[in-house]
Amino acid sequence: MLSSKKSTVEAYLHPIVKYLSHANPNTLTLLGSIPPLLFFVCILYHSYILALIAFVGNGFDMLDGMVARKYHKVTPFGGFLDSTMDRVADFLLITAFAFGGIVRWEIVAPFLLFAYLTSYVRSRGELANPKVSFAMGLIERPERLVLIFFALLLYILFPTITFLNLNVAEATFIFIMLLSLYTVIQRIVHAYKKL
Which CATH number do you get for residue 170? Predict the structure, then answer.
């Protein structure tokens, strides 16, 4: 869904990319892990506004790929490293809510599982047959990140509101988890039909 807007977002980052012609995309990938780590720490210390600001820094995760493509620095290892660091970032962004006491672990753990499965099923499917695209389904990483951002924002705005014994962040996490589960099922069905 949001992946179709990638070119629009990249247009805003092009002025930055032109100053990074000599940068190593792998270094940018590693630097891109700083905002999720800052987010994690801010949540632990209940500095939620700073956490939101750190979260916005995740948008710069796109810079490494843009630099690699624009300056012909694309490598198989670069793609591997980027995907690996995305999983590290996902762990930090999702588990921060449990470590920070915002969302219970019994909600965070399955959410993390389905978030990982969404990426794994795509990767494994495309490995099984590179001619078949698995970039499909209801929710991908960009949508998940936007919804995680709103989970924290809603919690900041409405910290005491509960529904069925769930705070707003927990309810949002369950919603994202169900969307992710549905996407995993969609991709498994797609694999069954295409592989």
Answer: 1.20.120.1760
